[in-house]
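Class prep. Protein, please:
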Amino acid sequence: MNKLKNNFVQNSILIILVLFFFSTKTNFVKNIHFIISKNYDERINSVYGFCSPEGIGYLRSIKKKYNFKENPKIINYEHVPQNNWAILNTKNIGKASNKLIFLNYPGPQYEINLNKSNKGIYELKDVEFIAQNFETISKIKVSDYANLTNEEIKLEILSIDKSLNKKIIENIELRKNKKENLNLIFKNLNLSESKLFFKLHNSNEVKSIDITLQNKYDLNNFKIINEFENCYLVEKL
């Protein structure tokens, strides 16, 4: 009898230790408190963000407020997983809508710094996604250079596909301390299977290249129905 009792006690202690170990490793207590202390919307916002990056909280909020009769198009300027599930009404699939939802809207123009992938070579990362929301690369400028003696900097813009085939798009000359107009139209570049590179030929001293993207969507061309920070529900004029 005592032996059975001892085995029971030992097994109970072992189970408690195992449970304690896994609860600490998986934040079990913290997760339980999170579930109990917050309602569903608060938990969604905590995981996905209200407006940024995925905007799930904002989408759910305007869905409740406006009771859409159609499914507005969602345009998110952050490259995140598809989020239309938060607002999709399956009864209205296929119905045309004159409303759009902008998430993480950066403004009519957006400046970014190119990633240096090699000596004198810079890449515009995620170019296929960028081309969905921006019309052109409107301006370009070399910056953060040291001991640059050349007044003009030769720049080659090229694309390289998956088979490493290279296509030269444009050759330009940049001047020191000046933002140059470029007007490189994305829809003319066929970048679905290619990457976009900027290659400097005579200026190893240049440390970075800045470009200005022209947004496809200008809020001045829409009626703003709702906004929170940089998330908007708009209607076509």
Summary: The two ends are 85 Å apart (CA to CA).
